[in-house]
């Protein structure tokens, strides 16, 4: 069965509302056509591989977490990576919708899903950005050694490599979590007295700051802390659009597995 693309857009924006996104973001329509689709391709990022999959399965809609455009595109040139991507989408009448910080912030979004995935309890809000609540603080039902926690995270988030920063290998029960890039909130996590802070995109000097502040900082990777939202989007869309078929891009678009 075919569904109007506008129907799917309206559903997504009734959930991850435009008003939720941060000021620098560009959530919502990236490329939008009128028409119908029988399927949706879900991905964290828009890549040439994702576009190829949509064309191959004749899907007319791609939904991503990260926006295709963050600022104005000044040139669309055939033979360049971005130019070819845009041209293929337009030639094949494929719409692209992205739900980024709006999906981070909304109830049942990225951070709620991460909290659920890690089986945390005693949920409290973590921090604010532009007066919007970001991330959560919670507790595991048991205390983990650092080694045990890393194995648990690898299994739950389907990640092979995790970086850990800090001074001492302490036991961990209370944590702060923030999907995506969370280095700006290391001090906030420390001030809340958590045993560890789980996030992504940690740089070398962020690790140094965690060491100096005496907090365990766990970098599970930007991709792996957020890709869990793709299954959640599928589950929610299926309840309203029961005959819609889906493809979820499970692989990191840019990282080579060596």
TrEMBL record:
Binding positions (a divalent metal cation): 65-66, 104, 222, 226
Keywords assigned by UniProt, alphabetized: Hydrolase, Metal-binding
Oxidoreductase listed as a keyword: no
GO cellular component: cytoplasm
Gene Ontology terms, MF aspect: hydrolase activity; metal ion binding
A Pfam family that the UniProt record links to this protein: DUF34_NIF3
Keyword Hydrolase: yes
Gene3D superfamilies: NIF3 (NGG1p interacting factor 3)-like (3.40.1390.30)
InterPro entries recorded: DUF34/NIF3 (IPR002678), DUF34/NIF3_sf (IPR036069)
Entry's family note: Belongs to the GTP cyclohydrolase I type 2/NIF3 family.
Protein name as it appears in the record: GTP cyclohydrolase 1 type 2 homolog
